[in-house]
Amino acid sequence: MVNLMVCSDIHARIGHFQDAVMAARAEGAIDAIVIAGDLQMPAAALEELNLPEPIYLVHGNNDAALAPANPADELAIDVTADGVAAVHELAYHEAAPARGDGVSHRIMVTHGHTYRAPRLVRLRQRAAALDADIVIYGHSHRWQEDAGGPADALVLNSGTLMPKPGSGRCTFMILRLDSKDVYVDRYDL
Q1: Which fold has domain 2-188?
Q2: In which band, very low, low, confident or very high, does the pLDDT at 118 lie, cut at 50, 70 and 90?
Q3: What is the residue extent of each domain of the chain?
Q4: Which of 23, 36, 54, 99 makes the best surface tag, with the fewest CB within 10 Å?
Q5: Residues 71, 59: contact at Cβ < 8 Å?
């Protein structure tokens, strides 16, 4: 089983991010952390935390503090039964290589603002072009889990680690993947 902590829209709330990481680790080992944009601070702030888990991050619409070439606009993450097999950094609308042998899931990660998220039609079209069966996006600050139809990619939004006053709690998810199934667990801070 591969376990990914997924969060988005941190908006410089590094303390909320640290709390989420600790809560995720309390549920078991985490293979990687996926951030769907709007970190809104230099990536060095994450590096200073010295986390043992790899962090996969995409640009959000509020990420001017990040270098333009790092992180990518989108990611295609290939997962096998043993873990993350490959991470393809993509520009918007750039093609990804074909899935390799043994890849059971391909996850498309984007912030979502260029696809008019939370509308899902363009997100699902892009997922189909990438041969992705899972889409992770942010931007809306709202939790979402939408399976769509039988041929559609599962679309996920972990919510935000920066709720507006009075709007609710910080949310993140743990995505658990095996060779066939996908399990999504919501966590509130």
Answers
A1: Purple Acid Phosphatase; chain A, domain 2 (3.60.21)
A2: confident
A3: 2-188
A4: 54
A5: yes
Close Cβ partners of 167 (under 8 Å, ≥ 6 residues apart): none
Which candidate, 90, 98, 105, 119, places its Cα nearest to that of 32?
105
pLDDT digits (tens, 9 = 90+) for 11-46: 999 999 999 999 999 999 999 999 999 999 988 889
**Please, what sign has the CA dihedral across residues 179, 158, 129, 87?**
negative
Sign of CA dihedral 85, 64, 131, 145: positive
Strand partners, 110: 74
Give dist(CA 77, CA 4) in Å, integer.
Answer: 11
Q: How many residues in the chain?
A: 189
Calpha distance 12→26 (Å, rounded): 23
Residue 106 and residue 78 in contact, taking contact as beta carbons nearer than 8 Å: yes
Q: pTM for the full model? A: 0.95
85 Rama sector, left if φ>0, alpha if ψ -120 to 50, beta otherwise: alpha
How far, in Å, CA of 1 to CA of 80, rounded?
9
Asked if residue 34 lies in contact with residue 77, where contact means CB atoms within 8 angstroms, the answer is yes
Report CA 57 to chain centroid distance, whole Å.
7
Closest to 117 (Cα-Cα) out of 105, 129, 125, 128: 125
Angstrom distance (rounded) from CA 5 to CA 62: 21
